[in-house]
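Why this split exists: single-chain examples teach little about how molecules sit against one another. For that reason, every record in the complexes split bundles all components of an assembly together and asks for one structure covering all of them. Below is a record exactly as it appears in the raw files.
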Amino acid sequence: MKAMVIGIDSASPVLIEKWKDNLPNLRSIMDHGAYGVLKSIVPPESVPAWQCFATGKNPAKIGLFGFSYIGRDRKLKHGRTTPDLGCFWDICSNRGLKVGVFNVPGTYPAYPVNGFMVCGFPVPTRAAWSYPKTLMKRLDKAVGGYEIDVPVTKPSDLKGGEEAYLPQVDRLHTKCLEAAKALLGWFHPDVFMMTFQGIDLVHHDFWRYMDDQNSPYRNVLRDWYVKMDHAVQELRQFATADTNLLLLSDHGSAPASAALYVNEYLAENGMLKTNNHVKQSGEVLTRFRSWLLRNLSPETIARVYKISPSFISKRLTLSGSIDRVLQNLIDNISWDETKCFSTGGHQAHFYITNQNGDVAQSELRDKLINMMGQLIDPTTGEKVRPIFHLREDTFKGPFQDEAPDLCVELYSGDEKIQISPRLGTGKLWSLSPHFSSIHTREGFWALAGPNVKQGLRLDAGLLDLAPTLLQLLGFEGSSDFDGKILDSALAVAHPNGGIFSSGDVLVSNP
Ligand SMILES: [Zn+2]
């Protein structure tokens, strides 16, 4: 196998460092290769982060801005992975290598490659989730009913709470690992790419217990890192001496302090107006979802999810709820009177609409920057620390017009403030944010292989890894990358590449 890429969604370089003595496999890859902090993109969300990684391009070049987002035409859009984006697996597939793409978020619907593709979440129920399609039956049989996602996402709302939730994530992970091993055994791909979602799921709900010595859940995160380390060990068995093994997370994670209802804040400052009565269409469904979660066991919900038509099961998932919040935003904003609105989650995405054109765009953005700098975290009484990302600096490419005008990450000490786009809350803050931790831009990477330096600590960017991997495989890739080849991590480039690194030390294969 020429390349094996294992994505550990949301894995934090801080926690890997903290528990490295319990993670012998991760550590051995770090010791035998290059590793460091991996700076993610803006926004640090699984979609488009995995696609940006796979293409080496920023969101405005591939036209992907999230799982769900509001387009400039005020319609709800969904991020899709297509063969024309230029993912590294497509480049390899087109050059005749056999590729396997497994469980990468946002890859529904699967499309033909020279090998196989099994979609990552979100996938509508009853939809075909693999190429070739026949693979579905085979995988179902191999793992006792293949599962793509947990249809329940917040353990505190769930019958049985955390206790009932953890086995769901565990089952998802076990089936994912078993499926990966089966696929590797059946297909023997030259290039294999997959992600694990367990760490991301437990981060979101169990981070808060990590430092609570009295909590029965205080070791959940550490135990999950150990579990992931074992999974890496099992998959490594399929690697050969010439395999380039890349581990990475698409973003990191930090504890959530509070949640800001950002559009309420815009309304309070005269930047956004709603229609007279804010109608929360779909609220009945949201309540129905809450009722189901509280009253049915997770196993029953999983069964309901599986057998329901897509339009019902979609409403049982978090992504369905997010779509409803965004649709409510579209329906309830009085567009003629609104200058700006925001979507978000892990950060705020501001879109300046300014229908009347009575104020300059730059003036409105300056006002937003000023407003976001004035916020006080209600939990600490301290000013928040905003990090601003301007559109022209952050998003470059043919889809730049679709990108937010301004993105703002809000920190309060080491914690991060969650952004909720929900309208009609009548308050600015929630002191019990939906998630216990949310995404940051600091992810992790480690790469080992015959032509990779050993034990090199090097911080890199998410967009650097696909060009680097393609270089190691001896492919030119495209000149359109936004990331750069990590020359200093390469002991000696592939003969086709013909370059020696600045370090100029040849390292033999361990
Ligand atoms: Zn992610």
